[in-house]
Every structure is written in structure tokens, then in C-alpha cells.
């Protein structure tokens, strides 16, 4: 399959560009414990992320991928507020970029590709995360989990990008680490590159049938014919 037609590359954030689980786990653990619920570990939270903060905190309270129906909407809302407070207080000090991220984004930008960020992370946290890691100059569009009504795997954000930039679906590539990213790409009719090192609820990302599977973000450069 040729990727020569690609003009816009949309990236997921958590698990793709940034290992944010340590900060997310700390905030989730503090939130659930402050409400009298059992502690959650980093490994648990790693399996819970990817579908937005509401599901993350619901899963953390439930200690399960399925949110317990016994949790009231009021409790879930309070837990989400606490999670947001603790996450903001942490100032993302435990998060770090995966290898080669900044270099790859710089090379793609220099080569003339339009780069966009499409994440299920709450929008209010995204600008500070990008600024902290000096990624804020690379993206023409930054779409958070509450920018539109629907999050990934719904294709709403990707379809918006296609419309805004007047592109065919064959001209956009989605780069992510979870089945939500791959399904969003499929639902938008565009191609996908899946990274093996991120968060995918403990499942091999290849099971989601992306168009390309990579162990390193550097593989993307060769895929779209960018030379170092």
C-alpha cells in the first residue's frame, strides 16, 4: 500500500507521543481514595485509559473495565472533578515523551506535512501538555476529547479535518496506539499507523487491523518518504 498521497497526519497524544500514565494514575488514585474507594495502581490505570477521563475515573472506581452500574451519576461527577483537580496539581511532572517524538514531528513539519492532534484527553489540559514538552508549534489543529460531541472511535474529528483542509480520505493518515484510533481512521475512510508501545487495554494493537504496525515512531518517516 502506497502512502505517497498523504498530506495530513493526525496524531493521538497519550500512548502515542506522550507516556502520561504516571500522572493519570496518580490523579486517579488520589481521587478514588479521597472518596473512600480502594487504591488503583499504575498498571490498572494503563489498561483503563484511552476513552476519555469520564470512563477512566469510572473504571478506577469500579476496579474494572466495565463501570459499575451501582455508581451514581453524582458520585461519578464528583470523582471526575477531583480527578481533574489532582491532575492539574500534578503539573504533568511525571509524563515524558516517547523516543524520537520531537525529531519526527520536526522532520515531518519541515517536509511540509500538515500535522494535527486528535486526542480523547480533556481539551483544557492539552495546551499546557504540548507547551511543557515544546510540541505546541507543530500542529495546525488541536482537537481534544470534548471539542466535538463524539470522541474517537467516532470519526467526527477526522471528518472535520478532512473538510477543513479540503482533503480526500486517502490524503490523511491517523497515527495512534489504541483500537479507538484505528477504528476512527476506518470510520473516516483514511489509513492508519499503529504503534505497539502504547495503551490498548492489554490487547495487541495488530488485532485492530491497522494499515501499518510500527514499534517506533521513526518508522513513520520512511512510510511517508521523509529522509533524515
From TrEMBL:
<keyword id="KW-0378">Hydrolase</keyword>
<comment type="pathway">
    <text>Organic acid metabolism; glycolate biosynthesis; glycolate from 2-phosphoglycolate: step 1/1.</text>
</comment>
<keyword id="KW-0119">Carbohydrate metabolism</keyword>
<feature type="active site" description="Nucleophile">
    <location>
        <position position="12"/>
    </location>
</feature>
<dbReference type="InterPro" id="IPR037512">
    <property type="entry name" value="PGPase_prok"/>
</dbReference>
<dbReference type="InterPro" id="IPR023198">
    <property type="entry name" value="PGP-like_dom2"/>
</dbReference>
<keyword id="KW-0460">Magnesium</keyword>
<comment type="function">
    <text>Specifically catalyzes the dephosphorylation of 2-phosphoglycolate. Is involved in the dissimilation of the intracellular 2-phosphoglycolate formed during the DNA repair of 3'-phosphoglycolate ends, a major class of DNA lesions induced by oxidative stress.</text>
</comment>
<feature type="binding site">
    <location>
        <position position="14"/>
    </location>
    <ligand>
        <name>Mg(2+)</name>
    </ligand>
</feature>
<comment type="similarity">
    <text>Belongs to the HAD-like hydrolase superfamily. CbbY/CbbZ/Gph/YieH family.</text>
</comment>
<protein>
    <recommendedName>
        <fullName>Phosphoglycolate phosphatase</fullName>
        <ecNumber>3.1.3.18</ecNumber>
    </recommendedName>
</protein>
<dbReference type="InterPro" id="IPR023214">
    <property type="entry name" value="HAD_sf"/>
</dbReference>
<dbReference type="InterPro" id="IPR006439">
    <property type="entry name" value="HAD-SF_hydro_IA"/>
</dbReference>
<dbReference type="InterPro" id="IPR036412">
    <property type="entry name" value="HAD-like_sf"/>
</dbReference>
<feature type="binding site">
    <location>
        <position position="12"/>
    </location>
    <ligand>
        <name>Mg(2+)</name>
    </ligand>
</feature>
<dbReference type="Pfam" id="PF13419">
    <property type="entry name" value="HAD_2"/>
</dbReference>
<feature type="binding site">
    <location>
        <position position="177"/>
    </location>
    <ligand>
        <name>Mg(2+)</name>
    </ligand>
</feature>
<dbReference type="GO" id="GO:0008967">
    <property type="term" value="F:phosphoglycolate phosphatase activity"/>
</dbReference>
<keyword id="KW-0479">Metal-binding</keyword>
<dbReference type="InterPro" id="IPR050155">
    <property type="entry name" value="HAD-like_hydrolase_sf"/>
</dbReference>
<dbReference type="InterPro" id="IPR041492">
    <property type="entry name" value="HAD_2"/>
</dbReference>
<dbReference type="InterPro" id="IPR006549">
    <property type="entry name" value="HAD-SF_hydro_IIIA"/>
</dbReference>
Amino acid at each position: 500500500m502506497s502512502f505517497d498521497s498523504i498530506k495530513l497526519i493526525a496524531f493521538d497524544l497519550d500512548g502515542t507521543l506522550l507516556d502520561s500514565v504516571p500522572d493519570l494514575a496518580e490523579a486517579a488514585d488520589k481521587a478514588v481514595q479521597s472518596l473512600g474507594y480502594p487504591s488503583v495502581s499504575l498498571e490498572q490505570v494503563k489498561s483503563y485509559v484511552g476513552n476519555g477521563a469520564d470512563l477512566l475515573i469510572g473504571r478506577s472506581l469500579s476496579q474494572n473495565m466495565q463501570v459499575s452500574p451501582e455508581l451514581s451519576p453524582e458520585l461519578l461527577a464528583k470523582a471526575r472533578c477531583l480527578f481533574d483537580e489532582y491532575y492539574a496539581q500534578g503539573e504533568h511532572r511525571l509524563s515524558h515523551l516517547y523516543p524520537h517524538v520531537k525529531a519526527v514531528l520536526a522532520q515531518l513539519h519541515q517536509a511540509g506535512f500538515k500535522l494535527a492532534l486528535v486526542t480523547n484527553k480533556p481539551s483544557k489540559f492539552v495546551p499546557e501538555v504540548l507547551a511543557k514538552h515544546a510540541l505546541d508549534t507543530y500542529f495546525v489543529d488541536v482537537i481534544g476529547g470534548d471539542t466535538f460531541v463524539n470522541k474517537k472511535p467516532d470519526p467526527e474529528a477526522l471528518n472535520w479535518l478532512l473538510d477543513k483542509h479540503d482533503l480526500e480520505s486517502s490524503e490523511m493518515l491517523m497515527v495512534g496506539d489504541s483500537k479507538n484510533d484505528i477504528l476512527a481512521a476506518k470510520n473516516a475512510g483514511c489509513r492508519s499507523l499503529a504503534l505497539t508501545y502504547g495503551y490498548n487495554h492489554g490487547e495487541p494493537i495488530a488485532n485492530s487491523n491497522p494499515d501499518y504496525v510500527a514499534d517506533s515512531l521513526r518508522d513513520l518517516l520512511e512510510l511517508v518518504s521523509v529522509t533524515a
